[in-house]
Amino acid sequence: MANRKKLDPDASPAARYGDRLRRLRDEHGWTQDELGERIGVTGAHVSAVETGRRPPTQQFSVSTDKALGTGDLFEREWREIKHGSLLEGFPEYRMFEGRASEIRLYEVGVIPGLLQTPEYTSALVESEVRRGAITPDQANERIAIVAERQATLDRSRPPLVFVVLDESCIRRPMGEASVMEQQLEHIIAFAGLPDTVVQVAHFAMGDRRPFNLPITVLTLPDRSLMSYAESAQRGHLERDSASVVPILRAYHQLQAESLSQADSVAMLNQLRKGTS
Predict the structure, then answer these.
(1) What's the pTM value of the predicted model, to 2 decimals?
(2) Under a CB-based contact definition with an 8 Å cutoff, are residues 171 and 271 in contact?
(3) Which of 102, 179, 251, 261 could be stapled to 160 by a disulfide with Cβ–Cβ 3.0 to 4.6 Å?
(4) Do 139 and 127 touch, CB atoms closer than 8 A?
């Protein structure tokens, strides 16, 4: 025990995984060899995962959850490690987004991924790389994910998509002027599709705005509801429909207070032409 390597769970998702694995193994009173025997690997393999010298696999995580009785805890953490820079909860959200029959979005500060042009996405992630917030590999991953998410809108039965953009989304420059011009043109075209509604939550709404952070509400084919919200550090997927109903009610309030689609498109056109 005296020679145990000290673990820092805040260093990375993999370090957090290893620290939790060690603590739960200790709580069961098992050595690394004893846990390894239960999940079909060597004790050295367990040690390497705990100390971050070897990344966990999905099979390792599933077997560990079964041995320790932790539900899908380690499998979920494995997904977080696998998806690198993505917020906790977002990979699971993506699966439901791709199946939803209705998508309701509210975004602040940036154009939401489902509406971004490739040039806008590139400018956004390049700015994060310059700040050191993400690596170039993570930037490429995000660009690919945006494209994959947008592809779900082209399925044979596309979802109804309701979008409310805080005015800050369309007034915040991103990249060169041509990038924003193309992005605004794309939103205007998106608003003209038969299964979409786009509105702007104008600054004058003030304290009547019911949300301070981005929010998404999904309606699944069985009419069940779920919501997804992000802070700077994590995402939260709420799957209890009863808890989502108040959020949906607030979203309807947001839509009622926002500009109509016609007025929103007029504002977008004014910005695109530089007359606003």
Answers:
(1) 0.70
(2) yes
(3) 102
(4) no
| DSSP β-bridge partners for residue 196 | 161
Q: List the CATH code of the domain at 90-273.
A: 3.30.870
CA 22 to chain centre: 29
- Burial of 81 from C-beta contacts in 10 A (0-12 / 13-18 / 19+): middle
Distance from chain centroid for Cα 102: 17
Cα 93 from Cα 3, distance rounded (Å): 41
Sign for the CA dihedral angle at 123, 124, 127, 132 comes to negative
Helix 32-39 with 13-28: angle, nearest 10 deg: 100
Residue 208: C-alpha distances to residues 99, 168, 215, 251, 257 (Å): 32, 16, 16, 12, 8
Query: pLDDT digit string (tens) for 49-93?
Result: 999 888 888 899 999 999 999 988 898 788 767 655 556 667 778
| Runs of H (alpha helix) within the chain | 13-28, 32-39, 43-50, 58-68, 73-82, 90-97, 118-130, 136-151, 167-171, 177-191, 241-257, 261-273
Q: Which CATH fold topology does 13-82 show?
A: 434 Repressor (Amino-terminal Domain) (1.10.260)
At 223, is the secondary structure helix, strand, or coil? coil
What SS3 state is found at 69?
Answer: coil
Kindly report, residue by residue over 170-209, the tens digit of the pLDDT.
999 999 999 999 999 999 999 999 999 999 999 999 999 9
